[in-house]
Structure formats: structure tokens, C-alpha cells
Amino acid sequence: MARRIFITAAEVSGDSHAAHLIESLRKLDPSLIFEGHGGPEMESAGTIIHHETTRRAAMGAFAASRVGEMWWLLQWTKRYFNRSKPDLQICVDSPAMNFHFARAAHQRGIPVLYYIAPQLWAWRESRVVKLRRWVDRVACILPFEEEYFRNHGVDATFVGHPLFDELPPNRGPAPGARFPDCPPVIGLLAGSRRSEANANFPHLLDVANYIRREFPGTRFLVPTTHATQPIATRMAAGLEDVHCGEREFDTMVPRCDLCVTVSGTATLHVAGHGVPMIVVYRGNPFLWHTIGRFLIKTRTFSLVNLLSEGREHIVPEFVPWYGSNRPVAEYALDMLRHPEKLRAQADRLNALVRSLDRPGASMNAARIALDLMNKSAGGPSQVPTVGVQQRDDQTR
Fold first, then answer.
1. What's the half-sphere exposure (Cβ side, CA atoms, 13 Å) at 254?
2. Cα–chain-centroid distance for residue 246?
3. Closest C-alpha among 272, 249, 115, 255 to residue 175
4. Would you say 52 and 23 are in contact if contact means Cβ atoms under 8 Å apart?
5. 67-83 and 95-107 helices cross at what angle (nearest 10)?
6. What's the CATH fold of domain 4-161+358-376?
7. Residues spanned by CATH 3.40.50.2000 within the chain?
8. What class is the 185-356 domain?
9. Cα dist from 103 to 77, 129, 276, 355, whole Å
10. Tally of CA atoms within 13 A in the half-sphere of 133 that contains its CB
11. How far from chain centre, in Å, is Cα 280?
12. Model pLDDT for residues 59-109, shown as the tens digit of each residue
């Protein structure tokens, strides 16, 4: 009988990473059957999607609105596991949802792989106890995470960052005239979740107002997801210099001279194209001062700064971003007034990316998944040792 893998992803990026993992697993074992909760990319990869979980993805206070929905989904999944136990549960990112699924699987004797480890080193470190109790293996995507989790008793392996499996291999600036020889092109990246776009995009459009006043002819590109495209097109209606494109990140960003982007994986994605950026994340000042500043240990938020040597600030951060939009706009204008600052940041981002650009995360995680299933079934491991390889075709 074919073995079944149940995968749970809660947002657009997790859906994408899960889809690439599924493709790698199929290469190793074409007989595998995939099912779970996720989105359209998992479905396109051949997964039976029991419930769509990515279109309403949310974080922070916005996630509270989904508590009832998540509770119902968890109860459904427990009943399903009781009737038809899969051979492996894979949790992809999103600990607020996936810790519950990991526990449900563990309690029923289903081995659990966590792919894209929760960032417990940044906040709520106490939850590592739950990770150690309910998860059998963790596939980390940041270089320093393997040592961190192993020091806390978690069986963790660094597999590489899946972004470098998904980025075009030969990247570089779009051809044609570029700023300052022509008006600038600015990317406005409001995030992959509906709640992020609702919170951030109106303020990004306000920053755009400042820029267009000083630099007439500026164009603004807005790469979106299936969840955020309706929000962006509605808010940008009537603005002829603002262009939205669903799933056009890798075509729009290389055309940009500067991006103003929300914090998250998007920062490393922008860096992968060598484009300078300003990082923002709209937050509630009351929640930040009463809760957030005490829960979050790191004082560097964007992924590119976290991964830089000494966690040095390569890119400016406005996180949490509340109050006036003028400081962000003034920073953007200063970079445009001094193009050498754009070039200097781009050089540092390219150097960072060269040190990280190792493909194979999806295949490495797939090998761990098969190894875990083999051992759980009482058989020997038949999966090659995980190794993160350097990309041969280096980016610029």
C-alpha cells in the first residue's frame, strides 16, 4: 500500500515551500500520496487539499479572528487521523497553527517533521519544550538554527533556505535605461497575507505620494499574491503610475531601483535580486509597548540583517512602523537623491546572497522526511545524507 504524507501550511509562502518539497519527495518516491491543508500551489503539485488555509492567513492581533476556524479545522483533523492515520505529518512554518497539528499527530503515534522551524530564538523561547515533545525532526532553513535547536534538545538539521530553490538561477537587473538616467522604479511590497496588505499598503501608497512629488515620472510596481491582489488593485484604483501584478515578484522586483517592503521572507527575496530596500512592518503601538517589546528578544527584525555577519544593519528597518509615514519617505528620498547609497547597499546585499545561495533545501528536507518514515516503520534508513551544496551559477 502506498504511503501517505499529510502536510499543513497556513500561508502563501508556506504553500509554495510545501509544493517544492512535494516535488522533491516525488522524485525520491513516486508512489507517495500527499494530502493536507494548504493552498493552490500544493494542489498543483498533486496534493489532495482537504481545506484551503492560505487565503485568509493572518498574524498577531488579526489571527485572533481565525481562532474559531482553526479550532474547527483541528477537530476535523483529529477525527480524520483517528479514521485514517497517515505515515507522516509535515508541518510547514506557521507555529500558531502547526504546533496544534504536531501535537495531534504525536498523540496518535504519527511521526512529525517540522519544515521551516519556528523562530523561537527570537520570541517565546519557552515553546521549545513543545517542539521537543511533539516533533521528531526539524528541518531548519537558517544557518544558525541547527546549533540553537540541538542545544535545546531538538533533533534539527540545517537544510538550506528554500527560497534559493525557487529563485531564477541567472538573476540580474532588467535590461534598459535605469535610474538616475531615467525616473526611478519603486517596488511597494505589502506582504503575502490579506491582513498584512490591509495594514501596510495604504501607508506604502502614502510614501509613494512623497516620492512622486519630488521625482515626477516615478513608476511603482506592486507584486501580489492570490490573497492580496484584490486588496492592492482596489486601493491602487485610479493611480496610473501604480501597477499590480499577481505572482510577478521575480519579474517586477528586478526592474526596481528601490523596494519598500514589509519584513519577512520578502526581504531575502528582494536581496536575491540585488535590489536595495527599506524594511517596514505596520504595528499597533499599544500592543508593541505592552506586549511585543517584552516577547521579542531580537532587536533586528528583517531577515537580511539577521543573516548578516554580526547581525549588522545592511538595510534600514522601521519595525514596528506606526505614526507618521514621513520618516520612511524621507529615507527613501535620501537614497534616491544619493544614488551611490543605492549602489552601496546593493553591493552588500549581493555579497550576503553569495554566502547563502545554496540550492537543495527542498530535496534535503525530502530526504529527512523519507528517513523519518523508514525509521518509524522499523526499517533502516535508505536515504542519502543531507548536504547543502554551493550553487554553481552564482548570481551577480
1. 16
2. 17
3. 255
4. no
5. 20
6. Rossmann fold (3.40.50)
7. 4-161+358-376, 185-356
8. alpha beta
9. 11, 12, 41, 36
10. 11
11. 15
12. 444 444 467 788 999 999 999 999 999 999 999 999 989 999 999 999 999
CA Rg value for the chain: 21
How many CB atoms sit inside 10 A of residue 317's CB? 19
Q: How far apart are CA 333 and CA 315, in angstroms?
A: 15
pLDDT digits over 266-280, tens only? 999 999 999 999 999
How many CB atoms sit inside 10 A of residue 103's CB?
A: 17
C-beta atoms surrounding 34 within 10 Å: 24
Give how far the C-alpha of residue 152 lies from the chain's centroid of Cα atoms, to the nearest Å. 24
Residue 297 backbone dihedrals phi, psi, to 5 degrees: -85, -35
pTM, whole model, 2 decimals?
0.85
Q: How far is CA 61 from CA 58, 65, 81, 92, in A?
A: 8, 8, 30, 21
CA distances (Å), origin 314, targets 56, 264, 281, 361: 32, 15, 17, 25
Residue 293 near residue 255, CB atoms below 8 Å: no
Q: Give long-range contacts, CB 8 A cutoff, 24+ apart: 25-33.
A: 25/366, 25/369, 25/370, 27/363, 27/366, 28/363, 28/366, 28/367, 28/370, 28/383, 29/3, 29/370, 31/2, 31/3, 32/2, 32/3, 32/4, 32/5, 33/2, 33/3, 33/4, 33/5
**Residue 247 near residue 225, CB atoms below 8 Å:** yes
Single out the residue of 87, 59, 56 nearest to residue 73, CA to CA: 56
